[in-house]
TrEMBL record:
<keyword id="KW-0472">Membrane</keyword>
<comment type="similarity">
    <text>Belongs to the STING family.</text>
</comment>
<dbReference type="GO" id="GO:0002218">
    <property type="term" value="P:activation of innate immune response"/>
</dbReference>
<dbReference type="Pfam" id="PF23417">
    <property type="entry name" value="STING_TM"/>
</dbReference>
<keyword id="KW-0812">Transmembrane</keyword>
<feature type="transmembrane region" description="Helical">
    <location>
        <begin position="45"/>
        <end position="66"/>
    </location>
</feature>
<dbReference type="GO" id="GO:0045087">
    <property type="term" value="P:innate immune response"/>
</dbReference>
<dbReference type="GO" id="GO:0016239">
    <property type="term" value="P:positive regulation of macroautophagy"/>
</dbReference>
<dbReference type="GO" id="GO:0000421">
    <property type="term" value="C:autophagosome membrane"/>
</dbReference>
<dbReference type="GO" id="GO:0035438">
    <property type="term" value="F:cyclic-di-GMP binding"/>
</dbReference>
<dbReference type="InterPro" id="IPR055434">
    <property type="entry name" value="STING_TM"/>
</dbReference>
<dbReference type="GO" id="GO:0005789">
    <property type="term" value="C:endoplasmic reticulum membrane"/>
</dbReference>
<keyword id="KW-0547">Nucleotide-binding</keyword>
<dbReference type="GO" id="GO:0061709">
    <property type="term" value="P:reticulophagy"/>
</dbReference>
<feature type="domain" description="STING ligand-binding">
    <location>
        <begin position="154"/>
        <end position="339"/>
    </location>
</feature>
<dbReference type="GO" id="GO:0033116">
    <property type="term" value="C:endoplasmic reticulum-Golgi intermediate compartment membrane"/>
</dbReference>
<dbReference type="Pfam" id="PF15009">
    <property type="entry name" value="STING_LBD"/>
</dbReference>
């Protein structure tokens, strides 16, 4: 089983703000150079640069607006133009920045030789529009990936949410009860369930090559039986049947361990998309989507109160497929780790070995206190009892009787 450090290094982390920090540092350095080389007119140069930079996206937005108005007006319901302008980038921050830059340039026009710079205001936006329209000045793959991840537009996000809402959220809350009912009817299987094995072990292979039977991958794994069926009325289907399979996993000493194991079925969709030419989904994109699926599903389940402590995600690295018992070792490794985590949550009580405190009796005598591990002793307070909410008539009589 691969370590947690290797798994964390494999899973892509959300993109941070390092590009923004670098951009701010470069802007500060550039401003410092301009201040050193130009003793006056700093605000004017900044206003001119901002106006030139923002004019390009605005002109390109006008070209996009023409396309939307001519061929795609049916996509916008109601106030079409009011929705087209923000969609083409002709609203909000770009327009506000250009307006502020134009106002600042107008106020500082006396400090700059604008008569010799008007060509820049014409050529730069037009050339930017040409490069943008031809795809030369387009978004990079990292920017597209950042947009898709931040706006939850990846295929992996949809598959993870579908897997959770349509399957895991319905079955995981009652999984432990199903296992208890299963053990009641399978007495031979009951001793083989460890303390931390009463969870759903979800296998996520990076290559998305999922067999129909786990025995085909590892002969140390044998199908034992199915948990009791759960029937739900879903999407017009009356009594739709959901089930989990119990597998017996043998370790190197031949001992069996029963647990509920299955592959993440949405990965079959990713695999078939990569095999279909019409999907435009290659092997590198598939691997990236599997990693995003794992991260998204982990985040969703981590925030779900219904599914908490009822699942275990197992990432299977395809680089170790040369071992014929790789799958059983991975499952057993997670079982062992789960057992340790379960036992660490309930540590045994500490035994007191030092001298014990002296506790007063009600009659004023003293004796040594008993250790915490012994049977509790009755201690009677000398103070009169205080009511929690309101006095009760027979309180004093009850205290005397005890």
């Amino acid at each position: 089983m691969e370590s947690l450090r290797d798994r964390d290094a494999l899973i892509p982390q959300p993109r941070g703000n390092l590009p923004k920090v670098c951009a701010v540092v470069l802007a500060a350095v550039a401003l410092g150079i301009v201040v050193l080389l130009s003793q006056q007119g700093l605000l004017g140069w900044v206003a001119m640069a901002l106006l030139i930079v923002t004019l390009g996206p605005l002109v390109h937005g006008l070209c996009l607006l023409v396309e939307e108005m001519v061929h795609h007006s049916n996509r916008y319901q109601g106030r079409a133009l009011a929705k087209m302008l923000p969609a083409c980038g002709l609203w909000g921050r770009n327009l506000l920045t250009a307006g502020l830059a134009a106002l600042l340039l107008h106020l500082t026009r006396h400090t700059l030789p604008l008569k010799d710079q008007w060509q820049l205001f014409v050529l730069v936006p037009v050339l930017y529009t040409v490069l943008k329209s031809l795809g030369i000045q387009g978004l990079s793959e990292a920017e597209v990936s950042d947009i898709c991840e931040s706006r939850k537009m990846n295929v992996a996000h949809g598959l993870a949410w579908s897997f959770y809402l349509g399957y895991l959220q319905l079955l995981l809350p009652c999984l432990e009860d199903s296992i208890i009912a299963f053990c009641a009817t399978h007495q031979a299987s009951s001793p083989l369930w460890g303390r931390g094995s009463k969870k759903l072990f979800i296998l996520i292979p990076l290559d998305t090559n999922i067999p129909d039977k786990l025995e085909e991958v590892d002969d140390n794994i044998r199908f034992y039986d199915n948990l009791p069926n759960k029937e739900l009325n879903r999407a017009g289907i009356q009594g739709r049947v959901y089930k989990h399979s119990v597998y017996r996993v043998h370790d190197e000493h031949g001992r069996g361990h029963d647990c509920v194991v299955e592959y993440a079925t949405p990965l079959l969709t990713l695999y078939r998309m990569s095999q279909d030419r019409g999907a435009g989904f290659g092997e590198p994109e598939r691997r990236q989507q599997v990693l995003l699926f794992y991260r998204t599903l982990q985040e969703i389940l981590g925030q779900s109160l219904e599914c908490r402590n009822r699942y275990r995600l197992i990432m299977l690295n395809d680089e170790r497929k040369d071992d014929p018992h790789f799958l059983s070792k991975a499952i057993l490794g997670h079982l062992e780790q789960q057992e340790k985590e379960e036992f660490c949550l309930d540590p045994p009580p500490l035994q007191e070995t030092g001298p014990q405190p002296r506790i007063p009796y009600a009659n004023g005598e003293w004796r040594r206190g008993d250790p915490m591990s012994r049977e509790p002793t009755l201690m009677i307070s000398l103070e009169s009892p205080q009511p929690l909410r309101e006095p009760v008539e027979n309180t004093e009589q009850w205290c005397r009787g005890n």
